[in-house]
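Example record

The entry below shows one chain as it appears in the dataset: sequence first, then structure tokens.
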Amino acid sequence: MSILDEIFPAAEISEKLPDAQVSVLGVKDLPEIIRLKGMTMFEMGLTTWHAAMISGQFEVSPNSLGDLVDRGEPNLLKYVSRALNRKVVFDISYRYATVPGAATMEPKMQVLVAHLFPNRLHIADVQLLDPRKPKKNSQLNDDQSHESLRLFGVLIANAERVAKEVQAEQITLTAANRRLVTAFQKYGFKVEDSGMARQAMAFDAGIPMERTI
């Protein structure tokens, strides 16, 4: 079991939903994680490539992976590793919980987190929603149609503890829009100081945020 698995608030979910069934995939299951979370893994590769480019440590053209980026390559992390000639994924955990009888295509309680280059704990995907309580007149798999389990604060506290244990320097995540920027700021995150982040803010999408440990 990876220490990253401890970030997912399994005990608190089990307390709220005693019949929840928790599963976990790790480094050895990376092909399966890529199959299940292809877009998220692509975005993780993109943020890692961006981190490498702004670090100034590599004499590599920022556009050298352009074709892979344009097609949304789920295995982008592998190509980033090759381009930089170094390991970029130190550990990864995809942990999720399902409830029998909840008719949803994807788990509504899940977190995909990785320890990535340069030395950051990246929260790539998180949902902590009650799959049993869809709001009326909403799509079955519309994430906004489910009531939150109010466990994000627990997850961030877990992430901070784990980040310290693995000696990561930052916790990073990507806010889908400016509304979520405000929400994440309440937990100590700030918008990354970079041209990419400013552009993302202007477009109100894919905004990189960070929290120093």
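Notes for this example: Residues 47 and 208 are 8 Å apart (CA to CA). Residues 138-145 have pLDDT under 50 and may be disordered.
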